[in-house]
Amino acid sequence: MTDSAFRVYGGQPLQGEIHVQRAKNAILAMIAAAIVVEEGETVLRQVPDIEDVDCAFELLRMVGAHVDYDRQSKTARIDASEVDNGVLPADITERFRGSVLFLAPLQIRLGYVELPGSGGCDIGTRKIDFHHRGFARLGAQVHYYDDGRTIAELAGRRFRGSQLYLDWPSHTGTENLMLAAALAEGQTILENASVEPEVVDFGNFLNAMGADIRGLGTHTLFINGVERLRATDYTPVPDRLVTGTFMMAAAITGGDVTVQGVEPAHLRIVCAKLEQMGVHIDIHGRAIRVRGRRERLNPINIQTYPYPGFPTDLQPCVAALSCLSDGTSYIRERVFDNRYDYADALLQMGADILISQGGACIIQGVERLRPARLTAHNIRAGATILLAALATEGESTIRNVYQIDRGYEGIEDLLSQLGANITRITAQSELQLA
Prior knowledge:
Helices cover 31% and strands 24% of the residues. α5 runs parallel beside α6 (171-182), α6 (171-182) runs parallel beside α7 (197-208) and α8 (240-252) runs parallel beside α12 (379-390). By secondary structure, the chain is of the alpha+beta class.
């Protein structure tokens, strides 16, 4: 875990072209799924060098897998032939939400898994009991303990196909149960499945390994269990959330940025909302060009919802844009109950934000924000205050950038390529300057 901060001198329009990284939320599931492969190497290409990926590799090694990650080529090679430990260590799971993705593969491989707790971003209630209920319907026994541990044990040699339903189309829930069903005896029908691009990509990855999953991209999956999955060589989809963040960085600074290597179809609603705010969007093949404007942005109404709705992970970033709009914006978070945790930092910078009793974030745009000393509390809130700092004349500092590093690879380098004045410094140096 790094102990560093960003020093940002804002007020400059971003200009230029960058290539976007591959999707963290697909890759973490693929890393965990490699556990079920008993022979050969699973190869994942263009894997971003980010903190959450490091945590996933660390967990793999703890359960007995061998991982070779080449940071130069961004290629990961995973040999899970010697996996022998189903107890996940608390020091990793407490800071890494993606540890829940290890539940299905360890049950498949070893017949049991022990999870002490999962961490990650504190953005509200994210229960995993529907994972457990799904495993139980597939034949597992799930035990809860007063100290917070959960132990899931597979009663038979394999999961058994069943009819499953998710109360909420959770992407991690869909991924976990999809993998369990892929190696179950018989057919599983999974209703109200997530249709997020990362989940579809994970399903395509499993099919490349020999799974029989049909209906990907719809809310009903038909999964015919197979006896084993084989090693494969796979390149995940681009990260739409990182793409959206850089699109908004261009917009908030009034810049002109082209993001290459993207999937524009995954960002239709984001493009539409930015255009409503007065941002110019041009799409050419796998590139999106974003041009801000000199005058203030238009206010916006946003309501988050699972894909293809407006993504909850980009709601904080669009709030930063709304702070500088010419009017009143209304943002309603429908996915997580603590997604407005960026508000205090933006208020510190001079924003006019009110969280209503009904749960709406009401933002009255101001002409400018002021620089401040800030702290990143999670991945997306950290990206949000970074966007605000880029649009603010003067020096801002952002501490705890480990949180940003969890999801964004070398974000300061990419921003510097676009003309931003941003430097990574040690947190101790930042404190000495305070």
